[in-house]
Amino acid sequence: MTRWRCCPYSGDQRLALLCETLLTLAETMAASRRAVLTFATHHDLPSRFVEFRAPDDVEAETAHSDLGAADESDLYEAALLTIAADAAEAAGGRCLVTNDGRRPAAQLTFRRSPGNLYLGDFTHVVASFPGTPRELEIHLGVYVTGGSRVPHECDVAILDRVEAERSRRGLVHPRCSKLIASIEAKHYQASPGFGVGRAFIGLAAEMGQAKCTLAFPAPGSSSIRPLLAKRRSECYDELIPGTPAATRLRAHLDQRIRNWIAAG
To answer: pLDDT at residue 46 above 50?
Structure first.
């Protein structure tokens, strides 16, 4: 859900800031929609409809939604998943977009709130790499157990597939030790504040600092950028699909995946 905070400006400055904010939100929505549709086309999905469904709504009939009706935050997170899938392909992976882990998906069905990896037939990506037995999975909105054994939500999680299978067989959350990379998405109308930065540092300490990335579409503030600049985790502000920030994120995830493959 997009969050709005009180603006300290007034007059012409406030109007200019509001116009800039609305433009950023509109650009993000359009670019996210385009990224998801391109993803569906690239992977030859027969349907261009996208369903965002509650994680526990595994049996109920839920109407399909076209992307024009999708929630902005859900769509932004789905677009970040497409960047992760692009990174897996850039690292030499062959990607299967699937809802059951075996067959190509007929349409995209994503979680609209955090859920358990082992419940429901939600869309995820399985990537295999020629010349190596390594396989990974990319999921949207799943819980991963941190170093303190407390589960934490990962907006986008790239996991060793062996661990994902363990999660499904044992009905347990995957462990952060088998997390390759994760993205924390903040679809805010302005830069996340200092408190969000501190919370992200805590999350990264739990999940593995080098594995964690914070992404948001607004320009970073003078408080959050210095706070995260010297950390091993990454922060990408002004990250809208199709922009240089998105290219840098893809390159970062590409290298994370390559390093994981090389580590065997």
So the answer is: yes
